[in-house]
């Protein structure tokens, strides 16, 4: 699809940007730990919080990038920290607390790293101290969702942790009323289809078992079914339609020996296989409606999907695709990324024809982008508007410094940028009450302001990003770059 010209209006200072729209040293400051926990009403506000905006934004991400000065190897190994922004009567309250996992409590008491991380964090003492220790740290750092009157912090390789939504106190592991057992996984990318939450779990090996869970609005598991697919699978996200769950089995291999012998982390043992195709797994949500179908497409790597839908006897999946898996090296420093040397993630549409087992690809967005969001009522259905974190420049790879609105019908784009000193996170779409338009609502996002070393909670009008922020809520501190979050219409502001 040929994109129409982007409408770009953003407050970019006129000074030179050293040929890049960002300064690497400023970007790096967003990866400093935030060991403090806060609880306060936000009083430093530019603009005005919409009176109609009532509810709570929950967000998860690594809050500690070190343990008592001992740096972790990759931010994905950082302890989960929940941020809560509650909106009520035109005001907003901020609170953050770490998820008190067993490992977090033990390491804070010991003042040192006690557990290995998936992405290369090792215990002190070299390979001898790490060999044959394959127990991984449940860091509960990837997503957080309020469902069935429970607030759950999610990490895809283990059970969720339940939190008190009013205080963010950790209540312990949650086993979905006995459906999960000790050590069972429950992924960090649930999809909500009306009054149903759909999620999955992966058990990789020579063959991989994918278990699909559907929970009703009370949080009860009403359907569970497992499927075995050939080969090792590294799957972080999935997409749904009313009839299918859709997974991309990325072309990677896993050699466990360096991990077992204490030389590398498990994530460092994953190797991309460019000569192998990407497999798309099509699993009926109702297991009585057929078997798993496996289609193949061009090699690539997908972390996140924007949406999927059924149309004209075909299935369309819109996904952020990379040329290869961004491997983690044992001697690397994640803060020293040379963005310009890496291929960007771009939005592609994969159209599946289940009759002739073919897949067609089409580039939807060539700008470097990640963390997509759509109107919650359009999940799994045809949609028009996509919101996503994006690079400031139209070409090349770079940190996310903008939020992009893409009109997939007309090709029009709107871009709101905070370059050169700002860096954005995942935008979360919140529908405006009593409206039905697909872009009638707000986008909520954390923005790191490197000039003041603080973070802002930004409210944008989803209908027109060119207006700039409706309100910009200045926090008293920074929040490290995070991962995923969700909004609930239930307000958990402090009781007065």
Automatic annotation (TrEMBL):
It comes from the Bacteria. Keywords: Iron, Metal-binding, Oxidoreductase. Its cofactor is Fe(2+). InterPro entries: Carotenoid_Oase, Haem_d1_sf. Belongs to the carotenoid oxygenase family. This is Carotenoid oxygenase family protein. It comes from Funiculus sociatus GB2-A5. The lineage of its organism: Bacteria, Bacillati, Cyanobacteriota, Cyanophyceae, Coleofasciculales.
């Amino acid at each position: 699809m040929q994109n129409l010209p982007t409408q770009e209006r953003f407050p970019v200072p006129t000074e030179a940007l050293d040929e890049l729209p960002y300064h690497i040293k400023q970007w790096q400051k967003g990866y400093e730990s935030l060991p403090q926990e806060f609880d306060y009403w936000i009083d430093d506000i530019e603009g005005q919080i919409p009176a109609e905006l009532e509810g709570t934004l929950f967000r998860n991400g690594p809050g500690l990038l070190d343990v008592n000065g001992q740096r972790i190897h990759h931010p994905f190994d950082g302890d989960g920290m929940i941020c809560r922004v509650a909106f009520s009567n035109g005001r907003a309250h901020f609170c953050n607390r770490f998820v008190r996992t067993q490992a977090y409590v033990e390491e804070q008491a010991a003042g040192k790293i006690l557990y290995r991380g998936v992405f290369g964090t090792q215990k002190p003492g070299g390979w001898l101290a790490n060999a044959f220790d394959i127990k991984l740290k449940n860091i509960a750092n990837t997503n957080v969702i309020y469902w069935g009157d429970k607030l759950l912090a999610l990490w895809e390789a283990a059970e969720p942790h339940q939190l008190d939504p009013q205080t963010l106190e950790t209540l312990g592991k949650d086993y979905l009323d006995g459906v999960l057992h000790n050590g069972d996984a429950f992924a960090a990318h649930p999809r909500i289809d009306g009054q149903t939450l759909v999620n999955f779990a992966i058990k990789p090996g020579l063959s991989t078992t994918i278990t699909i869970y559907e929970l009703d609005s009370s949080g009860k598991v009403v359907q569970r079914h497992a499927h075995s697919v050939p080969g090792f699978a590294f799957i972080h996200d999935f997409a749904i339609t009313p009839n299918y769950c859709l997974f991309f089995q990325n072309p990677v291999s896993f050699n466990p020996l360096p991990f077992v012998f204490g030389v590398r982390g498990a994530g460092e043992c994953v190797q991309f296989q460019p000569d192998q195709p990407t497999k798309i797994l099509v699993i009926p949500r109702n297991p009585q409606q057929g078997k798993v179908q496996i289609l193949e497409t061009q090699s690539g790597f997908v972390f996140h999907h924007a949406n999927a839908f059924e149309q004209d006897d075909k299935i369309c999946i819109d996904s952020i695709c990379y040329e290869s898996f961004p491997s983690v090296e044992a001697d690397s420093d994640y803060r020293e990324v040379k963005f310009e040397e890496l291929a960007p993630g771009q939005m592609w549409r994969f159209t599946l024809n289940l009759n002739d087992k073919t897949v067609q690809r089409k580039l939807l967005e060539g700008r470097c982008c990640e963390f997509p969001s759509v109107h919650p009522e359009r999940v799994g259905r045809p949609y028009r508007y996509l919101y996503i974190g994006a690079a400031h420049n139209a070409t090349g790879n770079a940190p996310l410094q903008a939020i992009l609105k893409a009109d997939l019908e007309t090709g029009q784009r709107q871009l709101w940028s905070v370059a050169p000193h700002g860096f954005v996170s995942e935008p979360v779409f919140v529908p405006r009450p009593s409206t039905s338009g697909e872009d009638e609502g707000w986008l909520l996002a954390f923005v790191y302001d490197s000039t003041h070393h603080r973070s802002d909670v930004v409210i944008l009008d989803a209908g027109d990003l060119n207006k700039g922020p409706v309100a910009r809520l200045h926090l008293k501190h920074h929040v490290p770059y995070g991962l995923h979050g969700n909004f609930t219409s239930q307000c958990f502001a402090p009781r007065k």
